Amino acid sequence: MEMVMQWIILGFSAYMVILSGGSHTAFLGLLCCAALCFISVRTRYRREKRLEELILYLMKLQDNPELPEMTKYSEGQLGVLQSELYKLVVQNQEKSAGALKEKEYLAQMLSDISHQIKTPLTSITIMTDLLKNPNLDEEKRAEFIDKIDSQVNRITWLIRNLLTLSQMDANMLKLKKQDVPLRELLLKSCQPFEILAELKEVELSVEADGDIRLICDEHWTAEAVSNIVKNCIEHTQPGGKVWVFANQNNLATNIVIRDNGEGIAREHLPYIFDRFYKAGNQSGDSVGIGLAMSRQMILLQNGTVSVSSEEGVGTEFHIKMYSEVVI
Fold it and tell me: Is 95-169 CATH 3.10.129.10?
């Protein structure tokens, strides 16, 4: 409407110039002014139209989870504005998708935790009821008490590891820098599983030079190694062997945990450090958080952990604790 009114005024002005016998120069000047006015009004109109389209585009985003198509402007400040708006929209959508994924992961994790705790609690409840029977013989009573103790230890281990993982996720776990004799650390890591290895008839050996020292958090590093040792023992058949040995060079301290057990299928190898992941050969008692915690704990101390395996031959975990930050 504004453009139309200006054209009417300009046309009337030109008509008055002609009637009053104005010169050609004055008329041409008036036409130039008219042309400039037309260009200015047209440019402003286009800008307003593009701004209106951008506003409508943003309004569509409120009701549309997908990114709607829009006309692209490549020139001028409007093109820059559109580009920045598009980047902002994409970033917000990525954050929203990430938040949704985290919410789904949390729901799945809580479901897995509930299932893992529910199973031993059910066993404890059943065996506790059986213990109430006054006619139960002493041998069975001792067996049920031993199983209840085992299930309680399993729940305790599960909760402790889950709390540790949550502390690491929230960056609340404070790690110490201690100068630790590596051989003593490895022996401490293996000590809780000596009885398990004996019962399974699996040989467990530790080989490390007594002079090797490692700067790390002794408690949590031992916990990380323990989880890997436990995994190896559980997947090694009677008569098998689990080796834990170490060496050191100027770059890193290397800890190798090897077994000659059943091995891990190639398709499972990329995922065994994922939380709650269970490979096909894992027992029903497996929770799937021990290796995840070990990996996270090693990463927090400037280290790496990798695994190689061959079915029917065995598995090898290789921990590297770097002396300096590797860029």
Answer: no
Which helix (H) or strand (E) segment is 55 a member of? Answer: helix 24-63
Here the tokens at position 114 are 């509930």
CATH class as words, domain 180-322 = alpha beta
CA proximity to 227, closest of 265, 184, 192, 267: 192
CA distance 208 to 203: 17
Cβ(246)–Cβ(182) under 8 Å?
A: yes
Which residue matches tokens 């009004």? 41
pLDDT digits (tens), the chain, 327 positions: 545 555 555 554 555 545 555 455 554 555 555 555 555 556 666 666 766 766 776 666 555 655 555 555 545 566 666 666 667 777 777 777 767 776 776 666 667 667 667 778 888 888 888 889 888 888 888 888 888 888 888 788 777 777 777 777 777 778 888 999 999 999 999 988 888 888 899 999 999 998 999 999 998 999 899 999 999 999 999 999 999 999 999 889 999 999 999 899 888 888 888 877 766 555 545 556 788 889 989 998 989 999 999 998 999 999 999 986 444
Neighbours of 219 (CB within 10 A): 14
- Could you give the 3-state DSSP secondary structure of residue 72? coil
Check: pTM over 0.90? Answer yes or no. no
